[in-house]
Description:
The complex is a heterodimer of chains A (349) and B (180).
Chain A: H1 3-39, H2 55-65, H3 76-94, E1 103-105, E2 108-110, H4 120-141, H5 145-176, H6 181-187, E3 191-192, E4 196-197, H7 204-217, H8 229-232, H9 242-267, H10 279-307, H11 313-344
Antiparallel strand pairs in A: 1-2, 3-4
Helix pairs in contact in A: 1-9, 1-10, 2-9, 3-4, 3-9, 4-5, 5-7, 5-11, 7-9, 7-11, 9-10
Chain B: H1 2-23, H2 27-47, H3 51-75, H4 91-111, H5 113-116, H6 129-140, H7 142-164, E1 165-166, E2 169-170
Antiparallel strand pairs in B: 1-2
Amino acid sequence: MSGLELLVVSGIKVVVAFAFLVLTVLVLVWVERRVVAFMQNRYGPNRAGPGGILQTLADGLKLFFKESMTPRKAQFLLYIAAPVLAVVTALLVFVVIPIGAPVTIGDTTYTLQVTDLDVGVLYILAISSLGVYAVALAGWSSGSKYPLLGSVRSAAQMISYEAALGLALVPVIMFSRTTSLAGIVEAQSGTFGGLLPAWNIVLLPSFVIFLIAGFAETNRAPFDLVEAEQEIVGGYHTEYSGMRFAFFFLAEYINMFNMAALTATFFLGGWNGPLFGPTWLRYVLPVIWFLIKSWVVVFLFIWARGTLPRIRYDQLMAFGWKRLIPVSLVWIMLAMVAIGVRRFGLPWA
Amino acid sequence: MAEFVVFAVFALAALAGAFVMLVARNPVYSAIGLLTTMFSIAVFYVLLDAHFIAAIQVIIYTGAVMTLFMFVIMMIGVDRDEDTSERLPYQRPIGIILAIGFAGVIVVAGSGAWVTGSASFAVPDLNGTIETIADELFGTWTVPFLGTVFLLTIAAVGTIALARYGPTGPRPVDDGEEPT
């Protein structure tokens, strides 16, 4: 591919990925409100558009035209930078997620991800570790006590659960023998005995730890102490209004979808699934499988929010450091032994 | 050309970050400055095709270390005024002399091939940087690597021991439970 062609293709991919994410958030917010309402025996938004699906768009327009207020004691530069940083880090994670099988048009093969990095998993961990700065800076630069409390909580929480998140992925990398996301999906393409799909969900402890740490990393219930309304108003975004608040909102939901898409990619086989029909259908079906898997995980996120009460702060820390991390370390050792046995045979054989 | 532009932008950002870290009155801005510098260094690694090192740089330094700094700064209270009076009288002149000396060393080092290495040494291997590093680390340099591991573990255990035990025996433990 020539330089210009590369530029054009990358540009198109970036625009499509951005549009896809914004559209996903519009639907995601509506789905969450409707599903939680259903679980709580209410209706939820059902007026704007068919079934209320345009409600998020209406809310977004309202936020767009609202005044963005700035607290008098705010550190203005960081106060403005924090919501931008939140959205940028959320968008950057999606860059390496493959949403479909590579498409061949003419002689060229196009991958359905913005870029495939050979250090994809590490890239995701790196970018999501930058996300904590948006929250920490927003809380501090507001110059107000509840946001500061919220951001200190979030910094502690994200450091703790990032470790568990990374450790949960180590067995996946060891079995897939690559850190590229396309490679990990590729490694899950076979079947066990021609019957069950060879998805990484067989690494069940990893899957459970990743999902729990994912809930905590996206600050979702039952780990939403960062923005616990009853205790600290809205947490880090208490002092934000208008579009600046909308940016945090957008980032939060993009992060949630990213985490769901990553769970689908790492553990549920990504875009792998049965293929049939004419050629064009063989390119469309992987995208559909990927979307179905991601939305199933999204539903898990909403389900947890609708049913589980928020846990206490000391419980959160104790659970992260004394349960999740030791369990994932033991699990990594077991996985190491399993790989050793598979490669070199039993030690007494 | 594009590579040079990216390098120039992030080199300036790295220098600006280092400068802000030194002169900022507020510790949070100092932390942001250091953060900018460390992130820019990660970009340099990307430009040198060392993707693995770049990712590790961001995870360890901008991710873990600086987050911890920020956390501590926020915990101990950022609104307290720093004591900026100078206690070491010769600090400034010595600092200036050292800075000039360091600049001289860089100028000399940049002109000597025995410092920068020969051009044939740097053969970029775009795919498999992780494999290459793993081979070196667990093949050629296993013993030094394990030595570092032990050293870090001993340091961590020593820190915890110093924090938990004073000269008169164990300190009272805060186990994080809510008071009942």
